[in-house]
TrEMBL record, chain A:
GO terms for molecular function: DNA binding; zinc ion binding. This is Replication protein A subunit. The lineage of its organism: Eukaryota, Metazoa, Chordata, Craniata, Vertebrata. Residues 32-73 form the Replication factor-A protein 1 N-terminal domain. The keyword DNA-binding applies.
TrEMBL record, chain B:
Belongs to the replication factor A protein 3 family. Keywords: Nucleus. Pfam families: Rep_fac-A_3. It is found in: Nucleus. The keyword Isomerase does not apply. This is Replication protein A3. GO terms for cellular component: DNA replication factor A complex; site of double-strand break. It comes from Oryzias sinensis (Chinese medaka). It comes from the Eukaryota. One of its GO terms (molecular function) is damaged DNA binding. InterPro entries: NA-bd_OB-fold (IPR012340), Rfa2 (IPR013970). Its main location: nucleus.
Length: 582, 121
């Protein structure tokens, strides 16, 4: 922040504070202040303006609010005016300095008499009025009603319910829309926002009149002075903001734009090194930053509720030399541009144990590309110099599983112990298992020859086959597979049903050929099943509790299967073993 | 030869000296074959070398990854009782470094890899 030194030319008592004229060649300023006894602002002293902000009034005049000032040379030592100051007139605009309520006491020294230059300053009344108009308060913000009034800027981290007179200077990192409600007690509306400063962050809510007063004034990304909100214990259920308290705006609260906002951080992030993610619990909410080493194409998948959603995976690496896969969803996934290996920061990403450790950006996460923060510059420097050559070790091993959904690795005993499929919706999981039994009886059925129809046809016993769905008769059919199999791993086994594609993959033959064999060469047909037995695959299964005639049974279906990539699998096992040992 | 029935710990070069006079199983890549055909050196997944002595001359070209079962001499030489070449021309090449990582796991957690119990039972 800026430090300016001034010579104090004059000091005037202007109830309830002081107005002082300062000189800083060639400009002359006026301002009001309350000064501590020790730090007396007396005529001709030299002072340093330590912290201030400039605000532009509606009529174009500028107001400078001084937050911190220090006398570096008391008046006595200076001995008279410095030079020959003249008033500064920026055309019609005149500058004012106003110090908001400070914690300091009123100067006990009486103010010296007026200088003849003072008449060049606008009338007191005008100033007071303009303050009133612009700051929207009954009394000018700058004039403390009591000398001990306290609107010194304090850090967000120090806010608590036991002090009501404070001012914070913070950036708005997000703002909700206006939400309204209507119940037996009446109607209401609210909005909420999150603020961040160098010390921390806090969630703020405004109700009813405060919505009208402040909602349109607040712009995300801008910095404001906020005073006198009410603090209470935070309801952490609704937010991931790290603060024990949250703020509610009330009738006394004020929000003023702050021009000098350079040093207020854009976002409060507590970045976890990617290498440390292994030791965090799954489902933890974390902030991460890294270089986007690679990014996949956007894919679209249908969720279990038959909704289409876009998905994209990217690989993040940081100076720990570790990589992690991050999944983006929806519009964020579609719009993401990973070209040039940008620095990507995510606040509030969800950590999961998919593939070991992986991250997902949920709707409550904030994604930043090349953010203007020191950590980003550090990473960029490291990557350009050394990091680009680092191969890195990914925490998200085993990219197996089907194209849709993130991999959810389970053992077969996990599936039973965790009661997967017992919920309202089906559960999906991936596992590595070995085929231990294949039921060759009734694995083939005669299906409608129409390309898009797989319904079982009825043999009319006259050379024709009828499809009820297509409402047609055909002189032929196509064989399709429904294969019942038992798969097992070290801990448990599972009966699964494999439909056409997965059945053909297990058996290594297509349905048509198998149908032929079954009709013509039993032993060859049997041989296919023999060969297929005891093969190990990566299965992606769907499991759901189904009720049929008062009987509930878990039905497992193979959605996809792949051969095991042993190297990947071994690496993953070693990672998991080492993790268990930690 | 009778000692082949013993439990053979899987080791790499750094574990040789802890297994003196014991039957071991070593996997490594053939490095140099002595002209006499009676001895060769092999490199493990950590890049360390061991000398393997055979009880009879080599009758074939030896190269690639080999699995040797034998006794460790006082001097840390592997006195081979039998060896076995792991073919790499079919499918996936043998990843010696990964094998070494797995080996370390077995040795770091002997309580979970009770090979002795398995053999005796």
């Amino acid at each position: 922040s800026l430090t300016i030194s001034f010579g104090l030319i004059n000091i005037l008592p202007i109830s309830p504070g002081w107005r002082v004229m300062l000189q800083n060649s060639p400009q002359v300023f006026n301002w009001l202040n309350c000064m501590a006894e020790e730090n007396i602002l007396a005529q001709n002293c030299v002072c340093v303006l330590k912290r201030h902000v400039t605000n532009v009034l509606k009529d174009g005049r500028r107001v400078v609010i001084i937050l911190e000032i220090e006398v570096i040379k008391p008046a006595g030592e200076v001995g008279g005016k410095l030079g020959d100051p003249v008033p500064y007139n920026e055309g019609k605009a005149l500058k004012y300095f106003i110090i908001p309520l400070t914690a300091q006491k009123v100067v006990s020294q009486p103010a010296p008499a007026q200088e003849n230059r003072l008449p060049l300053q606008p009338q007191n009344k005008m100033e007071v009025k303009s303050f009133n108009r612009d700051f929207g308060k009954k009394a000018p913000l700058a004039m403390p009603s009591t000398p001990g009034g306290s609107s010194k800027v304090v850090p967000i981290a120090s806010l608590n319910p036991y002090q009501s007179k404070w001012t914070i200077r913070a950036r708005v990192t997000n703002k909700s829309g206006i939400r309204t409600w209507s119940n037996s007690r009446g109607d209401g509306k609210l909005f909420s926002m999150e603020l961040v400063d160098e010390s921390g962050e806090i969630r703020v809510t405004g109700f009813n009149q405060e919505v009208d007063k402040f909602f349109s004034l607040i712009e995300v990304g801008k910095v404001y002075y906020i005073s006198k909100g009410s603090l209470k214990i935070a309801n952490k259920q609704y937010t991931s903001v790290k603060n024990d308290y949250e703020m509610t705006l009330n009738g006394e609260s004020t929000i003023l734009p702050c021009e000098e906002s350079g040093d207020v951080p854009m976002m409060q992030c507590d970045f976890v090194p990617i290498g440390d993610l292994e030791s965090r619990d799954k489902d933890a909410i974390v902030d991460v930053i890294g270089v986007c080493k690679s990014v996949d194409e956007v894919t679209r998948l249908t969720t279990k509720t038959n909704r289409e959603v876009s998905k994209r995976s990217l690989s993040l690496m940081d100076m720990s030399g570790k990589l992690v896969t991050v999944t983006l969803w929806g519009e964020e996934a579609e719009k993401f541009d990973g070209s040039g290996q940008p620095i990507v920061a995510i606040k509030g990403a969800k950590l999961s144990d998919f593939g070991g450790r992986s991250l997902s950006a949920s709707f409550s996460s904030t994604l930043m590309i090349n953010p203007d923060i020191p950590e980003a510059y550090k990473l960029r420097g490291w990557y350009d110099k050394d990091g680009h050559a680092v191969e890195g070790q990914s925490l998200t091993e085993l990219k197996g599983g089907s194209g849709g959904g993130s991999t959810n690795w389970k053992t077969l005993s996990d599936v039973k112990n965790e009661h997967l499929g017992h919920g309202e919706k089906a559960d999906y999981y991936s596992c590595i298992a070995t085929v231990v039994y294949l039921r060759k009886e009734n694995c083939l059925y005669q299906a409608c020859p129409n390309q898009d129809c797989n319904k079982k046809v009825i043999d009319q016993h006259n050379g024709m086959f009828r499809c009820e769905k297509c409402d047609k008769e055909f002189p032929n059919f196509k064989y399709r597979l429904i294969l019942s199999a038992n798969i097992a791993d070290y801990g448990d086994n599972q009966w699964v049903t494999c439909f056409q594609e997965s059945a053909e993959a297990i058996l290594g033959q297509n349905a048509a050929y198998l149908g032929q064999l079954k009709d013509s060469n039993e032993s060859a047909f049997d041989e296919v099943f023999q060969q297929a037995n005891f093969k190990t695959f990566v299965f992606r299964n769907r499991v759901k509790l189904e009720t049929y005639n008062d009987e509930s049974r878990i039905k497992a279906t193979v959605m996809d299967l792949k051969p095991v990539d042993h190297k990947d699998y071994i690496k993953s096992l070693i990672v998991n073993i080492r993790k268990l040992a930690m | 030869m009778s000692r082949i029935e013993e439990i053979k710990a899987r080791i790499n070069c750094s574990m040789l000296l802890q297994h003196i006079n014991q039957a071991v199983c070593f996997v490594g890549r053939v490095s140099k074959v002595h002209p006499s055909g009676k001895t060769f050196t092999a490199v493990d997944g950590e890049g360390k070398t061991v000398t393997v002595e055979l009880n009879c001359c080599l009758e074939e070209e030896l190269s690639g990854v080999v699995e040797v079962i034998g006794l460790v001499s006082n001097k840390g030489v592997l006195m081979a009782a039998t060896y076995n070449l792991l073919r790499e021309d079919r499918g996936t090449p043998f990843d010696l470094e990964l094998y070494n990582e797995a080996l370390k796991v077995i040795h770091d957690f002997p309580q979970h890899y009770p090979f002795e119990a398995a053999v005796s039972g």
